[in-house]
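Tutorial handout. Part one gives the primary structure; part two gives the three-dimensional structure as tokens.
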Amino acid sequence: MDGNKLNISLSGIYHVRYGSELVLTGCATRSQVLYTQYAAFGVDPEGRTRYNLAQIEGEWEKPLYSYSLTGSYRHVWSPDRAVQWYSEIGLGLVWTDELSVMPSITLIGLRFGGEHFYVFLDDSVSPFASLIHGGLGWHF
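Part two.
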């Protein structure tokens, strides 16, 4: 992939009790994938095609779309503070060409802001983010 990527996610959070939240996140991603076709020059002993990696026959780009829906449980470590720290664990469904299941883990995250508007940043490995995930939120 050449890095041409658009990712849009939307989450809903339900406060279960003090320090506990249920989170549902939907995500749509569009990536641009670069395909390279190398020249073939025979077969190996198992009958598989051999390719000459020094000779490119063609290259083309194709968009790749993926969608996910992730449900998770979030524990807020400091719910009564202006800067709230949290951890999260969940499970997501990911659809590209087929449907698959992927875990969602946030080791540490933080959010801060006012009564309604807030900003968040977390360290996630999930269907909607890898390593760093951040954004804006609104309390209703």
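Part three, for discussion. The mean pLDDT is 89. The two ends are 39 Å apart (CA to CA).
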